[in-house]
Design a protein that fits this description.
eight-stranded antiparallel β-barrel; seven-stranded mixed β-sheet; alpha+beta; DNA ligase (ATP); OB fold (Dihydrolipoamide Acetyltransferase, E2P); 28 strands; about 20% helix; D-amino Acid Aminotransferase, Chain A, domain 1; LigD_PE_domain; EC 6.5.1.1
């Protein structure tokens, strides 16, 4: 039996790995799995004859022909192992964490069985990260005691070659975008679900976050945890909830709202119909200062919420109405003790660990022409609204009240539910930053306790990113190379202070076959002979230009100065998805400023 050795090595009552089974579908798929067992390595697997022929590659595959990677032949695996991503428990063979690093299809260059028997298997890969022609060559080792299982994995010279290829620049799952540490920290990883839908019942403060903060300040964390455990019971019926809250709201208007009016800065005013959200200034490193509060930076859609006599309206940061897109949020007014209020917050889709996922938000919303929703999004992915500020409450403008007081009142008027939360604030910035880093989050926000709400970008709020992200305008695309279809990379740009679109790099990774095809349809409709860029983009391949109407979310490692033009560019940009909530004009250069200088300016009252 082809899988006999695989079966002998495993106890399937103790490991989540799939049991042995021959697949008769005769497919040609491949997978590369990063495996942190006793030693970190990559498992390279090709679907052949109903099983996955497998090799362990210590340094991982490379797109540079100069890198001849040692590949040790190991036992065949079942084809169902293709999408296995998770944790193999201790005391099991191969115990450790497994990530699907790359996945796709392969094509033999000749008779596969004959080449394999000869020890010279040539093939082409079409994956999310690996493309082009490769060879697996059996070698005779001079070392004593060798088992004859040593091969070399070699990249052939073609259009997919990347000189100096660095595998660490692509250290994320091809299925879930998670890192190996993310998967290792997910005790519910099944170790089977490659792209779980978000949870609709996440605790108000995720366990990983509470634990991290507790290490820095056990007393404060214990106090906060005790408060959070006293969450209100769920209401069995929406009407009962609304009735109870309405009674509470009436009492608060009589007893509490006069006290709100005594808050320093509170002003009696009519409720505005529009609010320009306050934006944070990017700084380069975390800091600790008692005059500041710290929050998680949510990776979703910013939304200002208008509550007016029970009717809700959600408005994006660029003024688009989001109300109809999220029907499960329409009843959150029943959990807010107010007749009229304006809240600032973020609509997010959470993964199973309570982390906001922009990828899940993209799946939920769907992408339409010109940034409009098509109605084809996945409504089964739930969303929540995390409120982090209160700007108006029953006749009073609170934008000139201190942030700390606004947050206190916000917590008093909200009864948390499955879809409505108050975003937690912390006194310690450095432990929160380290906790966010450990969990692979985008970053944190620092807000000065005494800051007013300013309807512009301000130094009173600072954002500290862990993973560099930037919204960019798509101004063109390059010809595909190798076996890639449609296009090779999207050509990205940002507007400078003179309104010129400056090329900042090209993103060719991060695409699935589906997202590649969907974006290709949009690019074709926007194609133009006129370049939207100021200056010519650096590219070894022909660039086709498009009208600058699409905004892409890009993840990258750092800003560099490279290329013939000497312009600043993104290093290792990865396409994360299209942004429908932001306009191209918002895509401007946003370099991190020195933290100390910005904190000093904010605390001195310079909020220009």
């Amino acid at each position: 039996m082809a899988l006999e050795e695989y079966k002998k090595k495993r106890r399937f009552t103790d490991t989540p790995e799939p049991p042995p089974s021959i697949d008769k579908s005769k497919g040609h798929r491949f997978v590369v799995q990063k495996h942190h067992a006793s030693r970190l390595h990559y498992d390279f697997r090709l679907e052949m004859d109903g099983v996955l022929k497998s090799w362990a590659v210590p340094k991982g595959p490379s797109l540079d022909p100069a890198d001849k990677r040692l590949a040790m032949a190991v036992e065949d695996h079942p084809v169902s192992y293709l999408k296995f991503e998770g944790i193999i428990p201790e005391n099991n063979y191969g115990a450790g964490t497994v990530m699907v690093w790359d996945i796709g299809t392969w094509e033999p260059v000749g008779d596969a069985d004959a080449m394999l028997a000869k020890g010279d298997l040539k093939f082409r890969l079409k994956g999310k990260k690996l493309n082009g022609e490769f060879a697996l060559v059996h070698i005779k080792s001079r070392r004593s005691g060798t088992k004859g299982n040593e091969w070399l994995l070699i990249k052939h010279r073609d259009d997919a070659v990347v000189p100096g290829y660095d595998i660490d620049e692509y250290d994320f799952s091809a299925l879930t975008k998670r890192s190996l540490d993310d998967i290792a920290g997910d005790q519910k990883s099944a170790e089977w679900q490659s792209n779980r839908a978000g949870s609709s019942n996440i605790p108000q403060k995720s366990a990983w976050l509470a634990d991290a903060i507790k290490k820095a300040d056990k007393k404060a964390a214990a106090k906060k945890t005790a408060v959070k455990t006293k969450a209100p019971a769920k209401k069995s019926a929406k009407t009962a909830a609304k009735k109870a809250v309405k009674t509470t709201a009436t009492k608060k208007q009589k007893d509490a709202h006069p006290a709100f009016a005594d808050l320093k800065g509170a002003r009696h005013a009519a409720m505005p119909s529009q609010i320009q959200p306050m934006l944070a200034t990017l700084v380069d490193e975390p800091f600790e200062d008692s005059q500041w509060l710290y929050e998680i930076k949510w990776d979703g859609y910013r939304a200002v919420t208008f509550l007016n006599d029970g009717k809700l309206r959600f408005v994006s940061r660029n003024g688009n109405d989001l109300t109809n897109a999220y029907p499960e949020l329409h009843d959150i007014g029943g959990s807010i003790s107010a007749q009229r209020a304006i809240l600032d917050g973020e609509i997010v889709a959470l993964d199973g660990e309570g982390r906001s996922s922009f990828s899940l938000m993209q799946q939920r919303t769907g992408i339409g022409e010109g940034g409009r929703r098509t109605g084809k999004g996945n409504a089964n992915i739930p969303v929540q609204y995390y409120a982090f500020d209160l700007l108006y409450l029953d006749g009073y403008d609170l934008t000139h009240v201190s942030l700390e007081d606004r947050k206190r009142v916000l917590s008093e008027i909200i009864s948390p539910s499955d879809v409505l939360r108050v975003s937690d604030s912390f006194d310690e910035g450095l432990p929160l930053y380290e906790a966010a880093r450990a969990r692979g989050l985008e970053g944190i926000i620092a807000k000065r306790r005494e800051s007013c709400y300013l309807t512009k970008r301000s130094r009173e709020w600072l954002k500290i990113k862990i993973t560099q992200r930037q919204e960019c305008v798509i101004g063109g695309y390059t010809e595909p190379k190798g076996s890639r279809e449609n296009f090779g990379s999207v050509v990205l740009g940002l507007y400078d202070d003179k309104g010129r679109l400056i090329p900042v790099g090209q993103a060719g990774s991060g695409f699935t076959a589906q997202s590649n095809a969907a974006l290709w349809k949009k690019l074709q409709k926007l194609e133009t002979k006129t370049s939207p860029f100021f200056g010519k983009p650096d590219s070894p391949r022909q660039v086709h230009y498009v009208r600058p109407e699409l905004v892409a979310e890009i993840k990258f490692t750092e800003w560099t100065h490279q290329g013939q033009s000497g312009q600043v560019r993104m290093r290792a940009p990865v396409f994360e998805g299209l942004r429908t909530d932001k306009s191209p004009s918002e895509c401007v250069f946003d370099f991190a400023k020195p933290t100390k200088l910005e904190v000093k300016k904010a605390e001195s009252g310079d909020a220009a």
